[in-house]
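SAMPLE LOG
Freezer: B-3
Tube label: C17
Construct: single chain, 104 aa
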Amino acid sequence: MIGESPFGGFFFSPPDLSGTQEAIREFACMTESSHQILEDSFRIAWDYLQGIGLLGEPDAATKFLLEEIAGAMARGETRKLLLSNRAIDAYRKRRPARDFALVS
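STRUCTURE (predicted):
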C-alpha cells in the first residue's frame, strides 16, 4: 500500500503483520546459525593470535578456543566480536608469559 509522507513524497506501507510474523520479517536478514557464529568467532580469535605470534600448538589452541566460545554461546552470548575477544583474553591468561628464556 502506498501513502503520502508528511515530509513530502510517498512511502510504501507493508501489509499489517502481528507478533512473530512482523519480527521475523524485520530481522530475517540479521539471523545467523550458531555454527556460523562459532566459526566466525573462532576465525577472528585464531587470526588475531596467529598474527601476534601467540598461537602456540595448533591442536591445543583449537580445542581451547572452541571450548571457550562454545561455553559462552551456551550461556546465551551471540555477539561474534565479544565471543572472540573473551576467548583471546582467556587464552592469553592461560598461557604463561615468556619474557625470559633460560640460556646455558
